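Friendly challenge for the regulars: who can give me the structure tokens for this chain first? No prize, just bragging rights.
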Amino acid sequence: MVRKSGVLLSLTSLPSKHGIGDLGPEASRFAEFLKNAGQTVWQVLPLTAVDGGNGNSPYSPPSAFAGNPLLISLESLAASGLLDGEDLRDMPAFPHGRIDYDLVRTSKDALLRRAWSNFKDAKQWTEYDGFFSANRHWLEPYSFFAAIKEIQGGRCWYEWPDGLKFRQHEALHKIWETRSDEIMYHRFVQFVFYSQLAAFKDCLDQFNIEFVGDMPIYMTLDSADVWTNPHLFELDESMRPVSVAGVPPDYFSETGQLWGNPLYRWDAMEADGFQWWVNRLRHLLTCFDKIRIDHFRGLIGYWSSPAGSKTAEKGCWRGVPHERFFERLTWEFPSRPFWAENLGILTPDIDAARRGLGLPGMLILHFAFGNPAKNPYAPHNHTPDNVVYTGTHDNNTSLGWFENEGSPQEIANLILYMGKEVNRDTICGDMIRMAMSSVAETAVIPMQDHLELGAKDRMNIPSTPGGNWRWRMMPGQATDELASRILAMTKLYGRLPPAPVKA
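First reply, four minutes later:
Bragging rights claimed.
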């Protein structure tokens, strides 16, 4: 076992002159900060495209494969000659510390289209064509999907005319004849995104930082994947969901979480050897070293609510042919480079499946102090085969939890557990120290906790439709002094990377 540690920070949360974090210079600078702090893991949120109609949630992507155009670095485009300095000078007044997605989307799309025009003039087709050929299985339908949505004024695909809705050859051919430039533009955007991602991944590799991605378990109804593969989802004849995804009442919500995603037809997926999943995971592993599988329990048994439900209180648990599914994944990915998000309502079969696959689970310290004696999240009950967090993107910050969410009994237990007084000035350091000292092999700390930020800087409040995913670091917050403090604690608890072996 090699003990290690790292941070949880969405790429969108990096500082930037262009309203949102991206794959440019600030990402490389933060990677250097992590190296100087002795960190060897950078966990991010999904990098797939986001849709304003879904609250810009990275867990409601319009494609399982397409990258987020908002993460494309304009500085890198300028460095490659596809934009010039003048293009970047007249930028909108973006808010500090927050993302205005509409403003960013409008600004960046205009500049990406300018870069596309310059790219066509330069006739730089060789790498572009190679990228399209290697990714054609998802890129061709996605580029059509994105172009048609614009033609249709943003309407969901199940509201399109039947020829487009049912992907009839004649209708799609007509789209190509009349809108081929728009289709090729969307292919260009993905080419740029994945070229920049590959360069950034090389940077992380040089710093020996493990890049951990995140895979949402479900697809959005209005996505290229459901449009292209309706037979793999529980849809009626009009292509509307029969039942939808979510979870029953839990820690995060008294009425459960009604996500609304269409559920998978696992019988159809099994019939072709779960090929869509294999393609998806294989694609993600070209981007990341490891993948956190969101809502892992949904791959064993999932909560099904009738379509049209207002909450997730009514529904039932349904099974998945998980033994055969995991057999296929083990065959395709023998090293099993996955983490399991095993939170929520768990049963013995969930833990047995995770352990049988040899996947690390998750331990959240915010959940540890209701009844610590037998609580699996309390540090004395931790086991090495886990990743320990103070909190996740769905939790409050540690300071926010301490001030607003921890019950009097939880706070009293925390103080007793620590053996000292705990207050707002110490809580972040105390929780980080508890995570770093855990026997869990990997410790991951949300960057907000390293920065000692409060509730207004949390990333997401589950079951709320708007205002999430907007937090950004301010320039200069990742200081040398902070890196030194993190490094000292990392060394103290044996989580520094092994020294290189001399030849």
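The first helix runs from residue 25 to 36. The two ends are 23 Å apart (CA to CA). Your move, everyone else.
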